[in-house]
Amino acid sequence: LAKRHTVTVKVTQGWLRGERVMSSTGITYYSFLGIPYARPPVGPFRFKAPQPAERWKGVRDALTEGDLAPQIDILRENIYVGKENCLFLNAYSSTAPCEGDIKPVVVWIPGGSFTFGSGNKDMAGPDRLMNGRIILVSINYRLGALGFLSTGDEVIPGNNGLKDQVMALRWVQQNIAHFGGDPSNVTIFGMSAGAASVHYHLLSPMSKGLFHRAIAHSGSALNPWAFDDSKIARRKAFKLGETLGCRTDCSKTLLEFLSTITARTLVNAVSEILADEEKIPMEIYFKPTNEHSNYMEDTFISAPPKQLMSDGNFQTVPFITGVTSMEAMYTLLDANERPCYYKWTNDDFEHILTKILNLPENKKKENNALSSKIKNFYFKETPICEKTKQRLIELYSDLLFVEGVYRTAKELSRKSASVFLYQFSYEGEYRLNKIFFKEKPLPGTCHGDEFIYFFDAFFTEALRLNFDYECSKISSRMINMWTDFATTGKMADTEIVNVIQGSLRGKKVTAYNGVTYYSFQGIPYAKPPVGPLRFEAPQSPEPWDGIRDASSPGNTAPQVEAIILNKYIGDEDCLFLNVYTPKLPSLTDGEKKAVMVWIHGGAFNQGSGNEDMYGPDHLIAGDVVIVTINYRLGPLGFLYTEDVETSGNIGLKDQVMALKWVQQNIAKFGGDPNNVTIFGESAGGASVHCQLLSPMSKGLFHKAIAQSGSVLNPWALVTNPRERAFRLGAALGCHTTDSKKLVEFLRTVPPKELIEAAETSRSPEEMANFDLCFTPCVENAVAEGDEKFLPSDPHSIMAEGKFNQVPCIIGFTSHEGMMMLRPLNEKPEMIEMLTNKEDSIIPYTKSLKKNTTESKEIGSKIRKYYFGEKYICKETLPELVDLYSDAFFIHGVKKCALLQLSHSTCPMYMYQFSFDEGLEFVTQLLAGSRTPGTCHGVDLPYLFKGFYTKQEYLKPDTDHLKIVKIMVKLWTNFAKTG
């Protein structure tokens, strides 16, 4: 099992232990689950307003969610679930508590007819909202009778579920700063009953000052299902008592009786009452009601919502509300269960309308006239039947949702200009309609369809395969619009740029240092390399219609993320890049800026160029355009059968395609295509060096920086790619020597299985020598129309001067080999092998065969040079770090520099990075332990802002920020002038 990366935070009740987790798309965030925000509402506290949460001793685990409220889970075979001790919330943040910028807070109030649902991850999975811009809080609150029963007097005033929400918002005000959230910038949002709850908080004096913006999806306090007058609420409470055997008209007697009934019995009794009544759409038994202000101090609302709205008694905060195009589509589920549904609806239309609209039953004549007008408006002279079901959906949508939502927006806009109204009409393959009506999905978007673009839920699992590229973009667009609103109270500050494939919508961003820049993320630079294009060279990207959202990163390549979670992430459709520019071009200012293209490292088998690792905030201050790219990794990027069946060095060819895209499009972002610098670290540094050697890259860049990586490092070039390819096939069950059969088989294997098999197919000796399975190679043969990226041995290319001669920077950190300690710490047997096997200490090279007299003799010399007479053990790890630094990095880097310098007239600069103060946790993350010196990769936080950037590092006059400024100036000056 992967080790949990936990973090503690102190709140008003005590200490909490949360953990760092990773989303399915590779985004890391911090999770704190099951935090009690109120005292358990049990025993004498049942039917009472919530009480403040109690303190605890020690550190409380916040690693699992709290219980949901007692309910019948209608989404899971109508089973009873939950416990009365349910007042918990969950908090999620993309950065560690109190690190990074203070972020806006978004509080999710779940829907579910005030009867079922929860804010837990199975109903509201947060992954999509973890884009680094907000702190997300989701809450559970009391439901049904336990949350909304009212006797219409001081005994049980009602609205306890809404008062629970108030208590949760108070907790947020008191504690969210400890998680990096801004208590003065809180947005509440919800859907359905959650949206009606949001509206109620606008109306309640109890909620004043607890939030600053609001979003209500498909729900309003003015919807007929969202409110009962106190007289109706009282009648319902006593009917529940009567159903359970308590016939009384005394509120105290009823309270005493109901306090003895189990929660399960209460929940089941309400279900029985509803089952005995007519099946009216959106029939909710217990719901919010008006309390009489003379009964108690803490009155949630003292009058019906309609009256409060017309009187102007509401908070004016920026507000978004809206509906889907066919909200009430779900009502036709009853038609599938009841053969006479349409006839019953047609014959009892007046009665149904009376119930839905809460019309007075003693005014039959007026009710009949109203129902006739409504029926004629929607159906004319046609009866309600199967053929007119679309009009029936429109009728129920208007009555149950649209009219109330629109009226709410209209009334609020009388006092506030910041009211935004939307209709969600996107009919993608990923919609609830597909679950409700599997065989014949109806046109339109139903109630809840927009919800699944914000959150993952267990009931959308069946639709997961339908979440295609278009759905992903709709999701990103909505999330970015909503998070922009949560940040500013306005809709997105966006910019449109036209590239060869179409139009892109980016966003304007302000960095920690006050520098503003424009961000365009997730731009496809090649056709998705899926299906028959797996193992093929990249193809040119396809154009798109309309404006493509570029406000969030594209997928990472399939990989096992080994630094944090040791978990599979990514998607084969991964050929995306990101562009960050300090200024977009204008008609009056045609000056182009230097371009820096970042090629990420990760041993050619993991990593990405996305902003969670490589945010541009530092470098953008150097007044350059930054491009970061994703490319194929592992066997999907570097498998090669040494014949025409596969294209070798595909990952490097992806990089070439990205550089071609830059040449064609970067001027649109204010960049100069004639002044492009490629730079990278580790495998990215080796990639930069490979681009220097490849004829395919000629003219695509003009300067190069290779950090801690060179093609002459022993891990950077595989000499037996064919053997590795067939070994992978055998590990997956394909035993053949035929390349065509192997490739056909491997194209059928899911990427997750390919990636995991590649990792497990390495021998212990290969692991000890850090011999990577799939890396660049010399290409012996290519298919017709394909090009050789590396046509001959890199050493020969350099010795003959046949490389792209441009100004270069090349260098390393003082103790590169420290990162090799992590696998040694995780697998102590590797140290034992290094000690007992004489030549195991020799790095893998093409010219030296192991287990020979020569190899043992060389191994003995190396051992004596670095260790003298000492054994290789934990006490001699510093010496082992020196050996690994020289063997795996420094020797190859220096050799490259000397070879290029001998055959080039262009400037060559070499550096050593030795600053090692303040980033101990990064070293710990990369190396698993710490010895003196600067580890491989520790130079990166001085060029990029990522998840590893602590807020304290960004304070003025810190040594960290001083080094950042020096590095940025050196790198960007080189990019500008060479």
UniProtKB/TrEMBL annotation:
Listed InterPro entries: AB_hydrolase_fold (IPR029058), CarbesteraseB (IPR002018), Carboxylesterase_B_AS (IPR019826), Carboxylesterase_B_CS (IPR019819), Type-B_Carboxylest/Lipase (IPR050309)
Native species: Diploptera punctata
UniProt keyword annotations, A-Z: Glycoprotein, Hydrolase, Serine esterase
SUPFAM superfamilies: alpha/beta-Hydrolases (SSF53474)
Protein name as annotated: Carboxylesterase type B domain-containing protein
UniProt family annotation: Belongs to the type-B carboxylesterase/lipase family.
Limits of the Carboxylesterase type B domain: 8-490, 494-978
Alphabetized GO MF terms: carboxylic ester hydrolase activity
